[in-house]
UniProtKB/TrEMBL annotation:
Family: Belongs to the Mediator complex subunit 14 family.
Protein's recorded name: Mediator of RNA polymerase II transcription subunit 14
Biased composition (Polar residues): 1-17
Protein's organism: Phycomyces blakesleeanus
InterPro entries (alphabetical): Med14_N, Mediator_Med14
């Protein structure tokens, strides 16, 4: 073995994996081999030739690398485990340790297997090295062979070529090239002919052509008209082609040659689908056409005769075949032009089907390309089949061919033959036709035709009989295109022009048939507010129309129908789609596309019921107008299917509506086909509807349970007002009718739209009369027209006609607003009656006409058209007062009973005897004005305001007083609670007015400037007494559930104004003195119901209460808070409690006498203001601040629980009573006592008096302040 590469001892080799080899031999280190191999084998290796092979690792990894990575990976996992174990639970910690141990064990087991296998890996490594070395040697041998082959191929090209010595010698010696071919001389052109020779040649050629035509040629009948000049014969076939021929060749075998050929078939000029198709020939196409035409002029090759037993081939005389070259040329070019026409129309139609007529035109060419089928309008709609212009006997035939145009090549022989067989037809005509051909042919051709056998004559006749083939145009198996214009001109081909004419005429047929059907059903249309109309003049706008009186013309492609007053739709047919198209015309109205699109779909699918479809549109538009107007009036519309009513309630609601009328079906004579083609009646296929076809539920947002139901039946409105309640059962939620009212709207509708209304129905209402007169004047105006009327009679006729044309379904915002307001008034009355009935007969009411209850000031209410139908509710005042008295009970702790009513029965009976008026209750607000806003309730009562000092006639937000009529109106927006709220408001005004009427009393005039009343507003009575204190009285409930009563508020001017009274500043009072006895004062007022008595009590107790207040203020200013406590025991009695267990009682024994006694001796206290006939002991009640909440049986009787000790200092004070009570230092003058006036009831005429008794004394009321100052000086020691 030879060595490939040798390495020096000091040179290192590189392994394939990038490691440096050191003393490797066949992939093993020398030291390793020395240790492993035995001594004998090592000796043999040393003596052998040393071969060093490169090491081939073959994607293997050294064992030491694998072991190192395994150890490091296991150590890293173990360190990670030790860091994460402390944060885990015991179970999770054990699970992680087990997973690590199991994984590490598996890895080291695999490593152990690899280590055991590595002991035997030396031999495998040596084999890999040898195999890699052999593969390297094989590649070197292959490359050597390839390079040798390349050298073999490329060496010949590098060789030097031989020189042309002969050509070089000739050119250098003679100067020419003498080896050219002699055939070149024949290619030199001859000399040109002169003009005379050319003319002579043309003349000879013309003669030859004439002789040829006279002797041997047979011309087809379309080519008999020809022209010969300039050595050519010219043929021109109209609308097909032009060709010129000449004769060429030897005299005994001259043939026809085509000199020029022009095809005359062209597309239409000027845009459209024809301009999109380019049919011009290029040079190659023209050459190909001439070549094919030239082949038709070449004689056919004769076929060899068939030998027979009697006549061998040599003895059979061969006759030349029958050949007519010009006939063949014409037949070929004629068929080419027909095919070209068919192809051009096909390309144009295909282009239209992909562009302007996409999805509307279907183009089909048969496999033989002799028949083109155009199906327009996508096969056609039912309306297109129903109104097709061609007569068909069956519906299937009409649906298949009514929208089909066929262009095909037809054989004229078959047309002429008809139903005769081929043999019968040929026998009958062959003799006459063949004689005619012989006479028309030339001399030589006549002889040749005469010698033809009888068996070949039919072929000759069929070949020379013209016309043979032509294009036929059929529309629905009918050749009548209903026009005099030429639609299929070969020199001006246009498929779109043909389609436009057919579709336009077909559309006119559809409109014409619909017009006839509607004309036949004109009575039904007029009964339902639909009218056919046509334009009066081309210059008149579309909106200016008149009712048609004559049969519409066929050329009128638009049908105009008036479906609403001065609103029209035009019905025509889209020539591209074949569908009926409907649009709104005139006066700028527009109902959108949704409803009109639905109408288009209905008419296209069922044209025979166009009248019903128009009625559907009319009703749909009216319903949409109602919905639109309802939304403006804040009514929520709902479809009947959304109401979830039970069948019984539906029958209850719609049982009284009349059945829908249907139009009379047309007679068969109005149809174009013998068999009537109509669509099936939709009513027979559909089940009976539960709801009317056009019905809408309008919900009142203010009354969510009430709905205004409007249905359109037989061109009339049907209206109901119903109340629905929700009911739950096992099947779910549904609604049931609890109340139903039929709405008679005709008076309101007539008032709004009719001019022939009764103007004198309300003679006294001049405003209403003027409004109706203006309505009549506006409706009788004549619409201006551009068409000139010829006479005054026509003008009057038109004006009368226009004035009478009132749509039965006319509706506008005013009419809907009036209906809405009328319904709201009905609903309001229903709710009021329901609230009155809840009082269990206590409130007796009766109904009266509204017009009899209105005053002259309520003009707006009188003008309402529905005022004749409205009623008001009258409730006696006695019933109201009785209900207020019975209902004013305390229900805070116990249920109301007979004993809990207010104890004002005698007073109430006296008031009942004086009540004779009624309270009027009526709806107001939106129903009277028709404007936006909610309906409300108005309660009206007579109020004598002249005896009451009113502050203003505008009492409150919902209460007002009419000064002229003396009517007080209570207005409530919350109708469900209006009666209860009115009872509270009426009771408050009645009770407060009862007090206000006592103000002019002469008993109050004696107070003069010390008593001043503020203007009365019926809600609060406010007055200033003693020039410094304010008292406010109102009627209300102190707490929820408590009976209503008089409530008083005692304040001072300093609490409301920045500038207090000088008296208040001098006395240093911080509050009203009577505030400590406010509860007793309030009880006195509610018990006596007497304002005069109440004011007298205020002035009587004012000195005492002011003095007590002054004592408390002084103690507070001196820092002796709590030294003296004043506890009221009655309105005229108090108890002064000192800081020790001593107390004094101070009370009025009469209006001018005070009694002061020691509370320790249990003095019996009788209030002079109480019931003096009572013999039992009256236990005084504890003081309770009016600001604190009032609770029954929860007050702690502090003054009765304390046991007071005898007051020794008070006894000593009694001993010196005469010394201090009348002293000048202690007596108060008027300047120090501003509450005392000379004319007051407690001012003594004989001067002040004082009378002691054991443990107390009596004194004049004027000494009140002196006594209180002395009592203030008492010590508790």
């Amino acid at each position: 073995m030879q060595t490939i590469s040798q390495t020096k001892h000091n040179q290192e080799t590189t392994e394939t994996n990038g490691h440096v080899k050191q003393d490797h031999k066949n992939g093993k280190k020398a030291e390793v081999l020395t240790e492993i191999l035995p001594h004998s084998e090592q000796t043999q290796i040393d003596h052998a030739d040393k071969v060093v092979l490169p090491v081939e690792m073959a994607s293997m990894v050294p064992l030491r690398v694998l072991i190192g990575k395994m150890v490091r990976k296991s150590h890293a996992d173990l360190m990670t485990l030790t860091d994460t174990l402390p944060s885990m639970s015991d179970v999770e910690r054990k699970r992680q340790i087990l997973n690590f141990a199991t994984f590490a064990r598996k890895q080291f087991l695999k490593l152990s297997v690899l280590v055991k296998w590595a002991e035997n890996a030396n031999d495998i490594q040596m084999c890999q090295n040898i195999m890699a070395h052999l593969a390297n040697q094989n590649k070197i041998f292959q490359d050597t062979s390839d390079y040798l082959h390349k050298i073999h191929v490329e060496l010949p090209a590098a060789r030097t070529r031989n020189y042309d010595v002969k050509t070089a010698v000739d050119v250098l010696t003679t100067g020419t090239y003498q080896r050219m071919p002699t055939k070149i001389k024949d290619m030199v052109p001859p000399a040109c002919l002169t003009d005379e020779e050319v003319l002579e040649t043309f003349q000879k050629m013309n003669d030859v052509i004439r002789v040829r035509l006279l002797t041997t040629e047979v011309l087809p009948s379309p080519m008999l008209d020809h022209r010969i000049e300039n050595g050519r014969i010219y043929f021109s076939i109209e609308n097909e082609f032009k060709v010129s021929l000449t004769l060429m060749g030897p005299s005994n075998a001259r043939q026809w040659w085509i000199v020029s050929l022009d095809v005359l078939v062209q597309t239409a000029e000027g845009g459209g689908g024809a301009a999109d198709v380019d049919i011009s020939f290029n040079d190659m196409q023209q050459q190909h056409l001439r070549s094919n035409a030239q082949r038709q002029l070449a004689p056919p090759t004769p076929l060899p005769p068939k030998p027979t037993e009697d006549a061998p081939v040599e003895t059979i005389e061969q006759k030349p075949p029958l050949f007519f070259p010009i006939v063949n040329l014409y037949d070929y070019l004629h068929m080419f032009c027909l095919n070209m026409q068919l192809e051009i129309v096909y390309m144009q139609a295909a282009m239209l089907a992909r562009t302007r007529w996409v999805n509307q035109l279907k183009v089909h060419m048969d496999s033989a390309r002799t028949k083109l089928t155009l199906s327009y309008w996508g096969g056609g709609s039912p309306a297109a089949h129903w109104a097709c212009p061609q007569p068909f006997t069956t519906v299937e035939e009409s649906q298949a061919k009514s929208t089909v145009i066929e262009i095909m090549m037809s054989n004229e022989d078959e047309k002429r033959r008809g139903k005769l067989s081929q043999n019968d037809y040929m026998v009958a005509t062959i003799r006459d036709e063949f004689k005619g051909l012989i006479q028309k042919a030339g001399i030589g051709a006549s002889v040749a035709l005469a010698d033809i056998n009888a068996s070949d004559r039919p072929k000759v006749v069929s070949a020379l009989k013209y016309p043979k083939t032509q294009l036929d145009l059929k529309w629905g198996d009918c050749t009548d295109l209903h026009t005099k214009d030429v639609l299929f001109n070969p020199t001006d081909l246009s498929a779109e022009r043909l389609l436009l004419h057919v579709t336009r005429y077909h559309g006119e047929c559809i409109i014409e048939k619909i017009r006839k059907v509607l004309k036949y059903q004109e009575k039904f249309l007029e009964e339902n507010g639909l009218h056919l109309a046509i334009e009066t003049n081309d210059d008149v706008p579309i909106g200016d129309v008149k009712l048609e009186d004559e049969q519409p013309k066929a050329e009128d492609s638009t049908l105009i129908v008036r479906y609403r007053h001065e609103r029209y739709i035009s019905i025509d047919v889209d020539t591209r789609t074949g569908l009926v198209r409907i649009c709104e015309v005139g006066h700028g109205y527009g109902e959108g596309d949704v409803k009109l699109k639905n109408l288009e779909e209905k008419i296209n699918n069922d044209p025979i019921n166009t009248a019903q479809h128009l009625l559907w549109l009319r009703s749909e538009i009216v319903v949409r107008e109602i919905v639109s107007l309802a939304k403006q009036l804040r009514l929520q519309p709902y479809h009947p299917a959304q109401m979830n009513l039970r069948p019984d309630d539906i029958a209850k609601l719609f049982s009284d509506i009349p059945p829908m009328s249907s139009p009379k079906q047309p007679e068969p004579d109005i149809h174009y086909s013998p068999k009537k083609i109509t669509s099936t009646d939709t009513k027979s296929n559909t089940s009976k509807q539960i709801y009317p076809t056009h019905c809408i539920f309008l919900q009142f947002l203010q009354f969510e349970d009430w709905y205004f139901v409007v249905a359109i039946v037989n061109d009339e409105f049907q209206a109901w007002l119903c109340c629905l309640s929700k009911v739950y059962d096992q099947n779910g939620l549904y609604q049931t009718i609890t109340d139903l009212i039929h709405i008679d709207y005709k008076d309101i509708w007539s008032e709004q739209f009719y001019e022939d209304n009764d103007i004198d129905s309300d003679v006294n209402n001049e405003t209403r009369k003027r409004r109706r007169e203006q309505l009549v004047k506006n409706q009788t105006k004549i619409l201006k027209r551009r068409k000139t009327l010829t006479s005054l009679d026509e003008l009057l006729t038109a004006s009368a006609k226009n004035s009478r044309e009132i749509d039965n379904l006319s509706i506008n915002l005013r009419f809907m607003a009036k209906l809405d307001s009328l319904c709201r008034a009905f609903i309001t009355n229903k709710k009021i009656e329901f609230q009155l009935q809840q009082h269990r007969g206590a409130l007796n009411y009766r109904m009266r006409p509204l017009l009899k209850c209105l005053s002259d000031a309520d003009v707006q209410v009188m003008n309402h058209p529905g005022v004749d139908h409205m009623e008001v509710i009258c409730v006696p005042q006695k019933d109201l007062f009785t209900v207020c008295a019975q209902g004013n009970v305390d229900i805070s702790n116990t249920a109301p009973s007979k004993d809990s009513t207010l104890k004002i029965t005698p007073w109430a009976e006296k008031q009942l005897s004086q009540m004779h008026n009624d309270i009027l209750i009526r709806a107001s607000g939106r129903w009277t004005t028709g404007r936006r806003g909610d309906c409300h309730v108005v309660f009206q009562d007579r109020f004598n305001w002249k005896r009451v000092p009113l502050k203003s006639f505008y009492i409150n937000d919902h209460i007002s007083l009419d000064k002229t009529t003396g009517v007080m109106s209570f207005t409530y927006a919350q109708i469900d609670m209006c009666v209860d709220r009115f009872l509270i408001d009426w009771e408050r005004i009645f009770m407060m007015t009862n007090l206000a009427r006592q103000i002019p009393s002469r008993w109050l005039k004696k107070y003069k400037e010390d008593l001043k009343f503020e203007p009365f507003d019926t809600q609060e009575l406010r007055f200033i007494y003693a020039k410094a204190f304010i008292c406010s009285i109102r009627w209300d409930s102190p707490e929820k559930g408590r009976p209503r009563q008089y409530l008083i508020d005692l304040t001072m001017p300093t609490q409301q104004s920045k500038k207090p009274s000088p008296v208040i500043l001098r006395l240093s009072l911080s509050r009203n003195p009577h505030i400590r006895v406010a509860t007793y004062l309030q009880n006195i007022l509610n018990e006596k119901l007497d304002l005069i008595y109440f004011i007298q009590v205020l002035f009587q107790t004012l000195p005492l209460m002011a003095g007590l207040e002054e004592i408390e203020v002084a103690c507070t200013q001196n820092g002796e808070i709590g030294k003296i406590s004043v506890i009221p025991r009655a309105v005229d009695s108090v108890r002064i409690v000192y800081s020790s267990m001593h107390a004094l009682d101070i009370r009025f024994t009469d209006a001018s006498t005070l009694c002061v006694s020691d509370a320790a001796y249990h003095s019996i206290f009788y209030s002079t203001l109480g019931n003096k006939k009572t013999e039992r002991l009256v236990v005084p009640q504890p003081y309770l601040s009016p600001l604190a909440p009032y609770t029954v049986n929860q007050a702690i009787k502090v003054t009765q629980q304390l046991v007071f000790a005898p007051f020794a200092q008070f006894d000593k004070l009694l001993e010196t009573l005469d010394q201090w009570i009348f002293s000048k230092d202690m007596c108060s003058d008027e300047q120090d006592n501003p509450w005392y006036v000379s004319d007051h009831s407690w001012a003594e005429e004989d001067g002040p008096r004082a009378l002691p008794f054991p443990h107390g004394f009596h004194c004049s009321a004027s000494l009140c302040r002196t006594v209180l100052r002395q009592l203030q000086k008492l010590d508790d020691i």
